[in-house]
């Protein structure tokens, strides 16, 4: 498995070897030795596994979890194709405000590790795009927040052809500046403290 550090502090892209034959393919999207080598500690204790399926043109995010409790995520796309955005919204982070986009699809089966407090968004590039999430915390509705994926301050590079299909929550999401002014954004130190609580 290959790994690549992204522009957001602590975020990592993982590309596994895909074993193909006349039956199909076999792949291991998460491998502890590679994760430890890239991130510096073992994968977080798993609290929840979830998946979403989206139509072409669906835009989800930018989503994040209040910290504390915080939530780390490991995301891959076993079906379809998505443009996945890693967005640093942690106040005090050395890469605050930066983002990087990674293509996740069913061919490469690459994954992205999202540290605690890092925002996540994606655009579904194909019909029935399925995203798989491994999470360090269970879903609690009141802890799940969003900022606008179209906030000009963030400047996410959304493909021009996209006629976005979004949820009511995402349509009403504040900008990064508005969320910061309201004290909604995670603090970098709190996020690091939460990750330090993972088994090392």
From TrEMBL:
<feature type="active site" description="Proton acceptor">
    <location>
        <position position="63"/>
    </location>
</feature>
<dbReference type="InterPro" id="IPR014710">
    <property type="entry name" value="RmlC-like_jellyroll"/>
</dbReference>
<feature type="site" description="Participates in a stacking interaction with the thymidine ring of dTDP-4-oxo-6-deoxyglucose">
    <location>
        <position position="139"/>
    </location>
</feature>
<dbReference type="GO" id="GO:0005829">
    <property type="term" value="C:cytosol"/>
</dbReference>
<dbReference type="GO" id="GO:0000271">
    <property type="term" value="P:polysaccharide biosynthetic process"/>
</dbReference>
<dbReference type="GO" id="GO:0019305">
    <property type="term" value="P:dTDP-rhamnose biosynthetic process"/>
</dbReference>
<dbReference type="InterPro" id="IPR000888">
    <property type="entry name" value="RmlC-like"/>
</dbReference>
<feature type="active site" description="Proton donor">
    <location>
        <position position="133"/>
    </location>
</feature>
<comment type="similarity">
    <text>Belongs to the dTDP-4-dehydrorhamnose 3,5-epimerase family.</text>
</comment>
<dbReference type="Pfam" id="PF00908">
    <property type="entry name" value="dTDP_sugar_isom"/>
</dbReference>
<dbReference type="GO" id="GO:0008830">
    <property type="term" value="F:dTDP-4-dehydrorhamnose 3,5-epimerase activity"/>
</dbReference>
<dbReference type="InterPro" id="IPR011051">
    <property type="entry name" value="RmlC_Cupin_sf"/>
</dbReference>
<protein>
    <submittedName>
        <fullName>dTDP-4-keto-6-deoxy-D-glucose epimerase</fullName>
    </submittedName>
</protein>
């Amino acid at each position: 498995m290959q790994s690549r550090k992204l522009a957001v502090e602590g975020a990592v892209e993982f590309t596994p070897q895909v074993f193909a034959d006349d039956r199909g393919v076999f792949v291991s999207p998460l491998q502890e030795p590679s994760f430890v080598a890239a991130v510096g500690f073992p994968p977080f204790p798993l609290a929840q596994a979830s998946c979403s399926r989206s139509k072409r043109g669906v835009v989800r995010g930018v989503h994040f979890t209040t910290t504390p409790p915080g939530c780390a995520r490991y995301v891959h796309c076993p079906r379809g194709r998505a443009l996945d955005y890693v967005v640093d919204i942690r106040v005090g982070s050395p890469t605050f405000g930066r983002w990087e986009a990674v293509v996740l699809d069913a061919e490469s089966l690459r994954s992205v590790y999202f540290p605690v407090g890092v925002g996540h968004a994606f655009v579904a590039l194909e019909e029935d795009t399925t995203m798989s999430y491994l999470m360090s915390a269970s879903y609690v509705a009141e802890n799940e927040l969003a900022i606008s994926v179209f906030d000009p301050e963030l400047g996410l590079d959304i493909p021009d052809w996209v006629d976005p299909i979004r949820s009511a929550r995402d349509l009403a999401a504040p900008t990064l500046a508005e969320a910061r002014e309201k004290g909604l954004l995670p603090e970098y130190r709190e996020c690091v403290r939460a990750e330090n609580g993972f088994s090392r």
